[in-house]
Amino acid sequence: MQGRPLTIAFYAPLKSPGHAVPSGDRLMARMLFACLERAGHRVLLVSDLRSYVGDAGDAAAWARVQAQATQERARIAAEWATDKPDLWFCYHPYYKSPDLIGPPLATQFGLAYVTCEASYSARRNIGVWVDMQAYALAAVQGAALNLCLTARDLAGLQAAAPHARLARFAPFIAVDAFGAAPAPEPGHVVCVAMMRAGDKFASYERLAAWLALLPPGLDWRLSVAGDGPMRAQVQALFAQVAPRVTWLGAVDAAAVAALLARGAVYVWPGCGEAYGLAYLEAQAAGVPVVAQAVAGVPEVVANGLTGVLVPDGDDRAAATAIGHILTDQALQRQMGAAARADVLAHHALPGAARRLDALLRDVVG
Prior knowledge:
Blueprint lengths: L6 E5 L12 H15 L3 E4 L13 H21 L7 E5 L10 H8 L2 E5 L12 H14 L2 E4 L2 H10 L5 E3 L19 E5 L6 H14 L8 E5 L5 H7 L7 E5 L3 H9 L3 E3 L9 H8 L4 E4 L14 E4 L4 H13 L1 H18 L2 H16 L1
């Protein structure tokens, strides 16, 4: 990294790095914070305000969020009266959770404003989300730079804000925790996912269907790391294969790494996944992946090289792919080695820090 360290105001309106509930959003917020620090910058978490409004008709919640944002802007502006940062960095502003704090402060104090994983969806222009998405779009249009983690997000922003400044920035993880030599246990299928409504539950539905289609004589077992409000409903989906499933509940990062090291194949359908950091973690541990070729999953899993991506909803193809990897140890080792190599080359923290530092210095000057 070259040049003086920057002072960066960091804000994640959907889920702050210190939020109590684990999720991919929280993990990515933490990873970006660490990435900025690794690049040598002084990073300040300027607000924990969650601007999330989950119901398009909840006008009262939207009004509360706006009032809270006004208070936060005043507080931060007072703190910056004698010592302002160089840049405002906002992670994941979108129609349910726009950044209501950063753009006005960036204008007031003459700061570069940068977004990461901003998105736009015209079909979400309903209820209070119309107003909320307008804020998110205005932030993108006025930003010095918008970092896009997937080609899908890049295309969406190009269509909605053709004059916005955009750049690709690949998802990444810290790989050190996954450096143990792979020790795959025969037939061991693993996955790590929260148990909640929506896309996560839909993926569990598909996973249960996949496993039910595995040949009766195949030796396999599934270990699931994760918990959530729909644990009972998720477990009920696997009644047909219940004796083969171990529910580990919520586990820490070290336990996840240890689980992955013992996995023969990582299986998660990926319904609606933006990209899925868990896929990167599995591949960093040398575990091949089976998933659907949907949403952002192809951004992080190379079909035929680091895993197998099947068409959306093709349960039979998924079951076939799982069985093939479990019964072909040479293929398992080959894909696992390619998976780890790909993560180290394209999705590891050191390279991400160098790339991010260069992008930010270009806009700060």
